[in-house]
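TL;DR need structure tokens for one chain.
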Amino acid sequence: MSATAIALDRRVAPSSVKKPDLRVLLVEDDSADCDLILRELGKGEFQIVSDVVRTPEEFRQRVKSKCPDVILSDYNLGSWKGTEALEILREEGLDIPLILVSGVLGDVTAVECIKLGVSDYVLKDRLARLPAAVRSALEEQKLRRERQQAQRDLAHKVEELARSNRDLEQFAYVASHDLQEPLRMVAAYTQLLAERYGGRLDENAEKYIAYAVEGALRMQALIQDLLAFSRLGRNGLGPDCVDCNAAVAEALQNLQAAIEESGAVVNRGDLPAVHANQTQLVQLFQNLIGNAIKFRTEQAPVITVSGEKRDGMAAFTVVDNGIGIAPEHLELIFVIFQRLHTREEYAGNGVGLAICKKIVEHHAGRIWAESHVGAGTTFRFTLPVTSLEQREVQS
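>> reply
TL;DR here they are.
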């Protein structure tokens, strides 16, 4: 091939590349302006396929029958305005970029049009900017659709997660409930065996029976705790405005025996009301104060409960002078059945704080702990002071 042929081939090659089609709907009552607009668009990267309409009726019919990629509309169309096309698009449920192409459009009017949903505006004496405006509007539409799809995917995954959590809670409830009866039989008969044959068997046999009784009773306690954990939110009672002072008073009444036995002193400030489930709120305070009494030093427990409203939420603290928690364990303590001490040191199955976490998060709050070994512990948590509907309106 000669050098001249190669040069000629290079010149014609770009024109052989097919441009992508762009379906354009012009809303324009001046045919000369239509020609100018289409000629300027043809200089861009698209192969233009166009239709022209002049009235609202024609516009509605055309967007329904031949959905365009972009709409270019004059602002003043005599009997109607180009922005009225936006309302038609919304009525038809269509997401199509609309660019105003007008001879005169003041800054104030342009801003109002953008607020109404117009993608952009181009003055007719500056049509060179039109291809870039169309490209930008199409890119914005693509990003908007990707964002909407991501939101739909997220909502779907949230629903799947919620359904999975419901299934897990139902399984835990059914399993723990159904296990109670056969386990009660095991515990009852091993205890009966120990009572009837105690002293008549050798030392090893009695030790084995004691192990069986202890294991059965401990399993009963675990299942009861699991059942209590899975029952949270199943009492059918919705949240309401709750006086936290009354909730703490009820929790202290339930803990009266432990308070008297330990010599605990519980100080309480004036607490804000919250939007929560009354029964669960009592359980929350009871578990936190009970924990402070249980994990005490040789000194009598001193516990302070305080709260205040902050940024639309009620922020609470429960402070004690107990044994404290190592910083590396501050997340672990909220995991169900996780224990930091042996049963010989402290009774329990490691469910109380998991229940606290579930209650707080069920009410759209947050709970955490601050502590060091030997320096006491501060539990902090937040709860809403208004209903979900009120918070959505406020936001």
